[in-house]
Amino acid sequence: MTTEQDFYAAPGDTSQGRVFTVTGQDWDSITQSIGESADERVVVNMGPQHPSTHGVLRLILELEGETVTEARCGIGYLHTGIEKNMEYRSWVQGVTFCTRMDYLSPFYNEATYVLGVERLLDIEDDIPEKAQVMRVLLMELNRMSSHLVAIATGGMEIGALTVMTIGFRERELVLDLFELITGLRMNHAFFRPGGVAQDLPPGALDEIRDFIALMKKRLPEYAALCNANPIFKGRLEGVGHLDLAGCLALGITGPVLRSTGYAWDLRKTQPYCGYEDYDFEVQTWDTADSYGRFRIRLNEMWESLKIVEQCADRLAGLEGAPVMVGDKKIAWPSQLAIGSDGMGNSLDHIRHIMGESMEALIHHFKLVTEGFRVPAGQAYVPVESPRGELGAHVVSDGGTRPFRAHFRDPSFTNLQATSVMSEGGMVADVIVAIASIDPVMGGVDR
Amino acid sequence: MSDEKTDDKSDKNESARPAEERNLEAAKAEAGTGSGVGQSAPDQSPENVPAPTGEVRAVGARHGMFGVAGSGDTSGYGGLVSATVFPAPSQKPYGGWFDEVAGALEARLEATELTAAIESVVVHRGEITFHVRREDLPFVAQMLRDDEALRFEFCSGVSGVHYPEDTGRELHAVYHLTSMTHNRRIRVEVTAPDSDPHLPSLVSIYPTLDWHERETYDMFGLVFDGHPALTRVLMPDDWPGHPQRKDYPLGGIPVEYKGGSIPPPDQRRSYN
Question: Could you say which residues from 345 to 384 on chain A have a Cβ atom under 8 Å away from some Cβ of chain B?
């Protein structure tokens, strides 16, 4: 339906031009009306609900014909006030909130937050080795699942539906591993200040090894399907160009920065969680375009697989080792076990606090209801998420709750590059450029 | 204003003052003499030992243990007061490369006769924080970015923090800067009072701060002067108030049971 009346922009709100509200199946009347006008300039509102904008992202594009002259982002549609919510929960409960921000890389959200809390608690050196290895294992599996979605949805947005279906097929395997290890496919809240919530379940290492073997067969399929595919290359090469100076000025990190050939990866440059002990390469490309970013993601999945393999080997020698810091004032007291009804419960722990030790009951009650205190101060421990530098600015006033937790999300920062990447290009390339940034709106809006 | 208030107090009869104020001062004094910071610092590792009186940065205090008042609590726990004390400014040497950065920065500031630009330096938990006077922020940032010995070419963004009890400097803006050249990371902290929530914008120096400053304006009401288009970025354009401020009113949740409602989180009974 073509109309001059727009319910969302009342006549007084639109300063110039004619407003078209496109509702589908009305292209004939639209093209006819536009054809009548001599002006080539059209301002298009794309999204926030659009299958090609990588989430609830709104793009305001000014077009001259098919050329984009101006591109602006409208964000905030997924703002949920997670940072504010965390100020009214205990330090441990904060993990439950922040894991939901960037929903494709939940472990990284948890990691940067718990690393910040651990720094304030001054227990960074006391985290058990097994907890660190499990964190690295889960983060690298998470990097693979996140890159798979980046490649899959990026492919879907340019019409390569097979890339989408195989990407989600493999991601499902990673999520199965997450489910086995943490109990949940997403939003795990598995990393806790002091370690991780649970030990590795029996059989997990075998499953991980099966997965590694399978991925070694499956990953080459992406390369065979895409790397030299003329249509794929035609859509991606030279699109969304952003050089090193542009990346640094705009604060861009992650695969976009590495696609300029600069090997900046916090896992190597400022290691955390014991990343210095693993053998892997930082992947770069030198074309500074969408195709380079695709290849970097593909190569990084191989590197992640290498790290996962090393983690599995190390975990095999760490059976029965603690996964939580020894300090009983911080460590969550119970370990879940599967009951006869198949539900998780801490039967031994319940027996201990209810039948054996009054002090243990008091301790449990205080730690669970009140939580621990974190000395006043602030910390910022960034991690290399699949999208770049993800950091939590954690401020404590000495209380049992975060005074402030601010997350520097790479999606939020990287999305600022939309305009420089797409202005002057074709409208179809806007989609490719944004897909190559791989923003996750849950992280952008928090 | 705060000075006047303190003078006023000393003239008054000791017993006429509210018990809370006395307790707060007692707690501050206690923190200063080294007998522990309220409940929160059981360990006595070097960086946890309180600094001498006068250098402690106390911003408010917690009262009681259970977040309720006037409940007829006779246990005495309700009368507890623990001062909120942030890490005190550090003295030189700061250790490691911190001294190189601080030295290079001071040398450049001395050359331009702006030595007062750095209010204090805090080294805590292996991280260094430069507290910068707000009017000098753009100059300091420009130097941090461009000086060869500093080269903090990457800014991770700005994070606002609201300390309602830090009188005269309620709003803090915290910048995390990275030198990729030297592989170093520092923090720059600037404050502004609630009555004059203005800071100079750094978008011209670090273009990445465009959205970050908009977010901080959106959430805290900090106005970044010189920002090309300071509008809300996450909240709707017509949203009233700035949600991340500590004085932002929170909503309760009505429940479908006899017209009851769950109180807002800051009014619920909880530990504090």
Answer: 369-371, 373, 375-380, 382
Contact (Cβ atoms closer than 8 angstroms) between residue A388 and residue A410 = yes
Measured between CA atoms, the residue of chain A closest to residue B161 is A404
- Residue ranges of domains in chain B, CATH in brackets: 13-86 (no CATH), 97-225 (3.30.460.80)
Task: Compute and round to an integer the Cα radius of gyration of chain A.
Answer: 24
Tokens of A94: 């904060």
In whole angstroms, what is the distance from residue A216 CA to residue A250 CA?
36
Mapping DSSP to helix (H, G, I), strand (E, B) and coil, where does residue A195 land? Answer: strand
Using CA atoms, how far residue A349 sits from A172, A320, A446, in Å, is 34, 17, 36
- Residue A55 tokens read as 């989430």
Residues (pLDDT < 50) of chain A are: 1-4, 11-12
Q: Which residues does B70 contact at the CB level (< 8 Å), separation at least 6?
A: none
Kind of pairing, strands B184-192 and B127-132? parallel
The model carries a pTM of 0.85
CATH of the domain at A115: 1.10.645.10
Alpha carbon of B141: minimum distance to chain A alpha carbons (Å): 13
**Total domains in the fold of chain A:** 2
Q: Is A249 on the interface with B (CB under 8 A)?
A: yes
Size of interface A-B (CB pairs under 8 A): 129
At B45, the pLDDT band (50, 70, 90 cuts) reads low
- With CA atoms as reference, report the closest residue to B202 among B152, B141, B253, B121: B141
Structure tokens at A262: 């600069």
> From the CA atom positions of chain B, what is the Rg in Å?
22
Which domain-ending residue is among A31, A50, A74? A74
Cis peptide before B87 (omega within 30 of 0): no
Structure confidence by residue, pLDDT tens digits, A108-153 = 999 999 999 999 999 989 999 999 999 999 999 999 999 999 999 9
Which residues of chain B lie closer than 8 angstroms to A403, CB-CB?
161
3-state DSSP call for residue B113? coil
> Looking at chain B, which residue has its C-alpha nearest residue A117?
B125
User: Alpha-carbon distance B95 to B126, whole Å?
Assistant: 9
Give the residue numbers spanning the domain of A117: 82-330+372-445
Name the helix (H) or strand (E) containing B254: strand B253-254
Both A269 and A407 in one domain: the answer is yes
CA dist A232 → A67, A218, A235, A287 (Å): 21, 19, 5, 15
A142 within domain boundaries = yes
Q: Distance between alpha carbon B230 and the CA centroid of its chain, in Å?
A: 23
What's A237's DSSP letter? T
State the Cα–Cα distance between residues B145 and B139, nearest whole angstrom: 10
Cβ of residue A265 closer than 8 Å to a chain B Cβ: no
How many Cβ atoms from other residues are within 10 Å of residue B226's Cβ? Answer: 13
Q: Do A88 and B265 touch (CB under 8 A)?
A: yes
In contact, A296 and A258? CB cutoff 8 Å: yes
Q: For residues B172 and B158, what is the distance between their CA atoms, to the nearest angstrom?
A: 10
| Minimum Cα–Cα distance from A85: chain B residue | B265
- Torsion over CA: A440, A271, A266, A81 (sign): positive
Give pLDDT, residue B69. Answer: 64
For A387, list phi and psi in degrees, rounded to 5: -105, -5
pLDDT computed for residue B44 by the predictor = 55
Give per-residue pLDDT as tens, A37-77. 667 788 888 877 776 667 788 888 888 888 999 999 989 88
Pairing, β A377-380 against β B184-192: unpaired
Which residue of A81, A376, A395 is in closest CB contact with B243? A81
